[in-house]
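Please predict the structure of the following assembly.
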Amino acid sequence: MLVDAPYYIPGSLAEPAPSNPQDPQASGPAYGQRVAALALRGGSLAVFIGVLVFFSVTAPFFLTIGNVGNVLGQSAIAGVLAIGLTIVVIGGGSNVVTGGIDLSLAANMGLSAAVYATLVQAGYGDPVAVIAALGTGLAIGAVNAAAITLAGIVPLLATLAVMNVVAGLELVLTNNTVVPASTELLLALSASGPFGIPVLAYVLLGFTLLVAAVVQFTPLGLRLYAVGEFPEAARAAGLPVKSFVAGSFLASGLCGGFAGILSVSFLSGSTTGAGDMLLPVVVTALLGSVFSRRLVPTITGTLLSTLFVGFLINGFQLLNISSTLVSGVQGLLILLVVSATTLLRRQENV
Amino acid sequence: MVEAVRGDGGDIIRLDAIVKRFGGAQALSGASLVVRRGTVHGLVGQNGAGKSTLIKLLAGLHEADEGRIEINGKVYDRLTPHLVEDLGIHFIHQDRLLVPTFTVGEALFLGREPRIAGTPFLDRALMRRRSAEILDRYFGLRLPHSALIADLSAAEKQIVQITRALLNNPNVLVFDEPTAALVRREADLLFQLIRRLRDDGVTIIYISHYLGEIAALCDTVTVLRNGRDVATLPLKETSAAEIGALMVNREIGDLYPKPQVVAGEALLAVDDLSLSNRYANVSFTLHKGEVLGLTGLLGSGAKETLRTLFGLETATAGSVAVKGETIFTASPAKATAKSLALVPEDRRRDGVALDLSVTENTTLASLDRFSKGVLDLGAERRATEELVKRLQVKTDGIDALVKTLSGGNQQKVAIAKWLSRQSEIYLLDEPTVGVDIAAKVEIYTLIGELAQRGAGVIVLSSDIEELLGVTDRILVFFRGQVTREFISSQTSPDQILSEVTGAYETLSNVG
């Protein structure tokens, strides 16, 4: 009391501002926005479940353990790539144009696979080939990281350029032909595991678990989110923003290399046309954020959306619907998700 | 008792005769700031007085060109953000640097997260518990565990930001305009907290435009003007009005060549205009040949009102009439059609197209005039040449790209764009920000000419002397309302400043 006495508060300050209507920013984000966010989350889950129900009714085989395992196995490569992309999106922010994106991932997988298969053909063993494939992926990641953090090119353009270079290198290496490869490791990966579920399915689950543990549950992961969502805040908290961004591209490069190995095993060699994976991977990573409470990209959300896309393709096949339709559906999904999140974000910024 | 003890712990910060230049411009020319331990020290000054430069210097973000920095009795050649933090000096920035999608706990502990013992994993439970505990202890604030930063009010975010700093056990806390986004009740809570921190021995540096707050809160205040400290006074011996007088330079020279124009018929009538949370019941009339000034702090509603007039915001109540004809649901296209013209504050972003030529920019808003299916390039060039001459735009020719022009000349092109359209009502948003003094005078001359030719001009500016110099009348906005109207020729800068900063209540005590 005594302490406060000398500090007379002038009348103008003590009174609430006259009819300044309803405290401009005191009420938090608009009610409508929360409803919209809820609708987006709930809606996407409902669509996911709806699709599952539809397919399981129309194609009885759909919801058997064997088929689910198949879908998981077939989604492994796309899933690993999408997880790599998710790391980049988390660290670069989810604005598709200026934020984090890695368009070189699919090409990266193609080149890493080609390196693996070529080395096996040349008589090298699994250890050398594995190291070379992962090294290829990491090197591509390093080029991306340098172009983005050192040269300051926006990720969309930097990785687009790198994608073309990498795809060209793959052509040079393979002369645009299929390079068959068969080793113990590859056979083990493409075999069936417990419950008759493909080993690749277990690989995807294990990989997701590992990355999710790091990204969702360690300080490192939390900081990565801070760097992507609000670089100034991260900087103010003393975090080396550029190192984090660079690190995210290295990680995604490594994912590309890993996916390359999986694809050599899945296809018994390296084939052309890795670039076709790009669209599904981008869809998957972008779609993933609608499965999180905060509408941010998460590793588990990406797994869910990987499965969603996988089930979609699988269901179409079971119903004998042309697979060319899948591409259209994926494009549509990108459009929907991106416009929905963009609209939500715009409201946030008002 | 407390009173007597406070500030007897010696000086914690001494910045001595600091000089800081940016290119040719001198931001600080021998500014000093001496802060005594355990006091609340106010720092005030007009925009451009050097406050933020001085504070960034203390934060280690700028390096001084000359001068002496002494903290805790030790002299430092240069400060780095890291060193400053180690010295226990923490900053509460004006913009809240918190990640919107984080929970309160995550935001508080980002950068020094607790881990579950023996694992690399975050201890989310501990973060939750500790943050709930701390927020309750310091602020009596209870937030749901799952609340995200984006869900919080401005005041709650501010509290989280302050709590982040408190977790470091700071010796010095620097507040930069902390109440800009707060409402009265929230600001009062903040003041209580600041006093409590001071009583706990924390030294506070408090930067604010609101002189009333400074008077209520601070032990000592330092006034900056033109990059120099003009006074450091104990608050007991001074008043908000006196501080205001120190902030402004009273001598206004012949900077403002204002012609006498007799106001004509009404051009623009604004009646009871309101925009839900931004401003309420704004009414005024602009006449032919009149220059009307608007001013107010950030968030006072002045800028929003100007934007509404040009259709960039949609008013929730009230009406706008141009020459007696009411405009419904305004849009920039409609406003332009009604011969309104806006020269926006951020001219490099909104005012001119930097990569286009002077000609292209000048005729951009009036292409209809020059086109009969195809552009009449000759007419375009003739019109541009005439305007360039009239406005004395310094350029290498009308084909030069606008980005090669100086700031002041870019601004002239932004105005020329509307002259070419023969607009009648000009809305100028901070027209002289970032231009040198010579260009300023030319822009002032231009404003006078517009009025002479029968246009109505509204100038929004936070430079009070400039407003007094170029306008006929000034409307002051404070917290969403027009609180007072001044006749420019009969008003002194400190009268306006008191009104703008809400110090007018204390003025009456001084007389």
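DSSP finds 14 helices and two strands in chain A. The first strand of chain A starts at residue 179 and ends at 180.
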